[in-house]
Amino acid sequence: MSQDSAGTRPRGSGGMxxxxxxxxxxxxxxxxxxxxxxxxxxxxxxxxxRKAGMRLAYVTNNALRPPGAVAAHLTELGxxxxxxxxxxxxQAVARLIADRLPEGAKxxxxxxxxxxxxxxxxxxxxxDRADDEPVAVAQGYGGPDMVWxxxxxxxxxxxxxxxxxxxxxxxxxxxxxxxxxxxxxAVEVVRIATGAEPEVAGKPLPPMHRETILRTGARxxxxxxxxxxxxxxxxxxxxxxxxxxxxxxTDARQLLAAEPRHRxxxxxxxxxxxxxxxxxxxxxxxxxDGTDAADADGGGFACGGWTxxxxxxxxxxxxxGEGGGDPVDGLRALCAAxxxxxxxxxxxxxxxxxLSRLGW
Length: 360
Ligand SMILES: [Mg+2]
Hints:
Elements: H1 17-20, E1 23-26, E2 33-34, E3 37-38, H2 42-51, E4 55-60, H3 67-77, E5 86-88, H4 89-100, E6 106-110, H5 113-121, E7 125-127, E8 136-139, H6 149-159, E9 163-166, E10 172-175, E11 178-181, H7 183-194, E12 199-200, H8 206-216, E13 221-225, H9 228-238, E14 241-245, H10 252-256, E15 266-268, E16 282-283, E17 300-303, E18 306-311, E19 314-319, H11 327-342, H12 352-357
Parallel strand pairs: 1-4, 1-13, 4-5, 6-7, 6-8, 8-9, 9-12, 13-14, 14-15
Antiparallel strand pairs: 2-3, 10-11, 16-17, 17-18, 18-19
Helix pairs in contact: 4-5, 4-8, 6-7, 8-9
The protein binds magnesium ion.
C-alpha cells in the first residue's frame, strides 16, 4: 500500500526494509548508541541488515570528531565501520563553502579537528585569527575545552566582512553530565556579537542531505533517526523515506503530535525494524475486527489487531481478539488517527489513556 499523499498514516513496506532500500542513512545518538553504549538490539540488527545486502552509512550533525574517529568508536561498540561510512556536518559545510569560494581560500575555524580536516579535504585553508584575513568563518561544535578567544576571532572576522557558515544549529547535545549547550548555542554567541546570520549545513537542511547522497551514491535511501526536527524533517525535505526508532529522544506523545514535516514513513521500537516488513495501517471499516469504528468521529484505523479512532477530544484505542499484540502496532494505528485528525497541523487530542494501554 502506498502512503496517502497527505502523509496521514505510517506506510506498509510490503517487504523487509533492508531489502526495499539499498542504503540506510543512520543517525548515531539515540539510534546506534547512547553515550558510550550501543542501543539494545542495534549491533545484531545492523549486522543482519548488512548481511541482507543493505549498505549502512552513519550521518551525524556532530562536527567535532573526524569520520575516522567516529568509525573507530562504532567498531569498538561492535558495529564495524570505515571512515568513508561516516558523513558529518563538517563535511557538508566544507562542501558548501568550497562551492562558494576559490581553491585555497582562507577560512577561520571556530570548532574542532573534524572541521579543519573537512576544510582541508575541500582544498580550503583553515586559519585561526581574524588578522589572517579570512574570507569566511566556519563554525562547528568545539567541545568542552574550546577557549573563549575563538569567539573573539570569529566575531571580529565576521564584523570585518567574512562570510559565516555553521555546521549545524543543534542548541543542545547529550553528554555524560546530561544536556549541555551544542553548536547552536555557540552560534547564538557569535550572532549576538555580529548581528549576522550564518548559512547552515546540518540536518534537517539540504546541504547535509546532499553530502550524504553524494558520498554514499544511495539510489533508494532510507533515513533512520530518533529526532523529528532533524532526522525526520531532513528526510521530508529531501523527499526520502524515513524510519523513526523509539530508542532516543522522541516519545510516543511527540510522535502523535507531529505536524506533516515531522511524520516518519515508518515507526518501529528499535533497529530490528529494518528486518521487518512494516505493516499496513488499514481503514478500520475495511477490517473485520473494526466494529467500534462506526462510532468514531472520523472513522478508525487498524493495525495488528489494534483499532484507533478519535472520539470527541480523546484518542481511543481498542483491541480485538485475545493476546497482547505488538504495542508498536497500536501506536501505528494511533498515529493514523492523530495525523488524520490533525491534517496539516498538530494533533491536540488527549492520548494519555491509549498510550498507557501500550505501556508508554
Ligand atoms: Mg539522534
